[in-house]
Amino acid sequence: MGALVPGAASGTVSPGTVDATVPGAASATLMLLLADARLPAGAHVSSNSVEAGLRNGLTPAEVAAYMRARMRTVVRVEAGAAVVTRHVLVAEDAAGAEEACADPAAVLTTVTAEWAARTPSPALREIAEVLGAGLRRVAVALWPGLAGVLPRRGTPRPVVLGAIAAAAGIPAVDLVRIVAYDDAQTVAAAVLKLEPMDPITATGWVLEACTAFEDSVADLATLTAPAAIPAAGAPLIEVWAQAQSALPRRLFRA
Question: Organism's domain of life (predicted)?
């Protein structure tokens, strides 16, 4: 397998890295692809528990606050896991040169375990692994070498995102922003299907939540060790996730 080494100077996939089938693709374009709701990775099956929330006392007017609460909790955990995955797959030495991680599979097992320890809800872990499996299909189609790094089962979405960032040369700060945007946009897309409202309002909520989160981006982007992944609890979100998994009639799986 080729080394997991992106083109550090240009931000592009270098020849020979993870057998890239899209050599020269700009990392900015790849960021747009990953943030696109049309990406065939199955994210449309999740509402980020807002469906259960709306059935259990959350009002449509409070969804913006719900997005911001997720930024302070769930998003910090997932962004941290993604950034650490990226870092350990592309280790930087003191001179700034980048070299491949010696045992990526073992490292990803550790990162996944640390992420799981910070995600108490079985329902949240399950949907993250389902979404990870869908995103993995995209990842190995574009970078076949990732097939040997990412297990077919049990790898959560943030870890797969981190592996893609390592392969594609996406900077850590932008990876954090992708995780945040995806989380807020998932809530917005779901609430528009569940409650009649102006889509422009939901768009404004996404922008507001991501803007509020920006102060955390730089710090999260510096994480390097699995144990450093934030432990930011969100008991009510965990409760709603479990309630979502048990709804007899539901539009979303999670």
Answer: Bacteria
Residue 171 pLDDT > 80, yes or no? yes
* pTM of the predicted protein model: 0.85
The residue that leads in pLDDT, 52 or 73, is 73
Of 228, 238, 236, 220, the residue nearest 115 (C-alpha): 228
The confidence score (pLDDT) of residue 62 equals: 94
Helix (H, G, I), strand (E, B) or coil at 7: strand
Amino acid in the structure at residue 162: G
Whether residue 10 has pLDDT greater than 80? no
Helices (DSSP H) in the chain: which residue ranges?
Answer: 27-35, 50-55, 63-72, 74-89, 104-117, 122-142, 157-168, 172-194, 199-221, 235-246
Per DSSP, the three-state class of 196 is: coil
Query: How high is the pLDDT of residue 14?
Result: 36
Q: Which long-range contacts (CB under 8 A, 24 or more apart) does 115-121 make?
A: 115/77, 115/78, 115/81, 115/156, 115/158, 115/159, 115/229, 116/156, 117/231, 118/77, 118/229, 118/230, 118/231, 118/232, 119/77, 119/156, 120/233, 120/238, 121/237, 121/238, 121/241, 121/242
46, 131 contact by CB (below 8 A): yes
